[in-house]
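During the first year of the project, the team set up a workflow for recording each protein of interest as an amino acid sequence followed immediately by a discrete structure-token representation. This format lets reviewers and collaborators read both layers of information side by side without switching files. As required by the reporting guidelines, we include two representative entries from the current panel. The first entry is reproduced here exactly as it appears in our internal archive.
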Amino acid sequence: MITFGKKALTGITLALGLLSYGSAYAAAGGSIADIKARGVLTVGTEAAYEPYEFIRNDKIVGYGEDILQYMVKKLGVKLNQLNQPFQGLLPGVLARKFDFVATSVGITQERAKKVAFTEPVGEVRSMLVVKKDNAAIKDAADITGRIVGTQMGSLAQPAIEDYNKALKKEGKSGYADLKLYQSYPDVSVALLNGTIQVAVLPSNVLVLEMKQKPDAYRVIGQVGERRLLAWVTNPKDKEVRSFINDTLNEMQANGTLANLQKKWFGETMDLPTKDYLPKGAL
């Protein structure tokens, strides 16, 4: 059984609305020349994925935001950044509501058949977390019969669903329910208030949560493999994707990208620049 939180249902409604009315808002997308002619770069972001992109003092900040500011300066245009629920971002870029999605989206085979991924900007692992004082759940196998929660449409959702299928193949009953939320902060709140018993959180979010609340969480395992994160463009806007990739390579070569990774993560990342897309990707 899968149930949706109230905010998740709002995200579904937004995504459907973008698909229905996208053509009425098709004011973005195209070529780099189009963006420069407009004098504005319009991007879609979900600023709820610290430290990649998040809100601090009413402003969007983070690793991805610093990369974006580098690109805006390079283009010589103004930035129009639309902070929206994750569930509306991919439909939005396909509907040309944005020039591209400047938020960290997991590269999957299903997504790569619909949208065009840039070179990776980061990586993530899906971690199983319980409240620190929950002694009954000791490891990943103990999610059997428990209420689990994660963000709707995230990499963590298929990871926990696949793990649940594996449990059932072993003759176990699997989780009692999977609740889906609009954002990871909502998942953390649900865990701490007892709405769910196990949360599936991305490793980067979890590290920060545990620093801020050292006595709140306990990690019981990981589901799935390491996933690469990238930005997203409309498949028709090949020049926009090339601009992003070229700029990422430039930032890697001049040391800017490594400095930003140290600033936000405390270490550099070993990210591929080729052979990172799944078979059949656009």
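The second entry, processed by the same pipeline in the following quarter, appears below.
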Amino acid sequence: MKFTKMHGIGNDYVYINCFEEKVEKPEELVKFISNRHFGVGSDGLVLILPSSKADFRMRMFNPDGSEAQMCGNAIRCVGKYVYDNNMTNKKTILIETLAGIKVLELITGSDGNVAMVKVDMGEPILKARNIPVDSDLELFVNQPVHVLGSEYRVTCVSMGNPHAVIYVDNVSEFPVDKVGPEIEKHPLFPERINTEFVEVINPKRLKMRVWERGTGETMACGTGACAVLVASSLTGVSEKKATVELLGGNLDIEWNESNNRVYMTGPATLVFTGELYI
């Protein structure tokens, strides 16, 4: 089975072209393929499939076997894959995901291959029950959540998948590996939740680390960066357009006031191709 390893600012996945390959049990394959000692090593598995609603469809699986609705870094790499491999010649494409159809604008470099991708991530979901958060509040903004004997102020946003945003003074020193799993599995979040820990550099620059449900801490999370920008605008600590610094690199995020949609722009990078014997 042929595969391709790609990353979006360090958020790395193994991609399989299901126009050519057949994957019968992706929830099992991902547990092997994502293992960094006995498999290829990745933050998960992405399948590129035909779609009756869009140009292509993507499915993505976390290392624990759970299927995720959407990943901003992965979808940029899907755009690069299909264009660079001559599966499309269009520079604006539609990708079907469990979080809806996303519009990608492909930006090519001097070699003719895709270097950057701008993704219309859609409208943020702010109603607590729809994120979902088990709360009677209309919006879950700057609300206290207690874990490990400490209180954290949490703002929740869904970008097709749920996110909890927490502001800290020094994100580099924050114990993400201890607090992240406690927030992820908190009873407030019936579907578990991705958690972003954010340090505000200035209103146009935010620095974050992310604990992804079903995965753990990763180098980057595109939907998380979008959620951070929305939460930061809601809480008044940032403008509606800012650069978000992640461990793997930077993403430019904009929450457009005129249409209420969030746009993410960032790179997509090919690492290597290979073949699995399974």
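For the second entry, the following points were noted during internal review. The chain has a mean pLDDT of 97. The domain at 2-122+266-275 is CATH 3.10.310.10 (Diaminopimelate Epimerase; Chain A, domain 1). Both points are flagged for discussion at the upcoming steering committee meeting.
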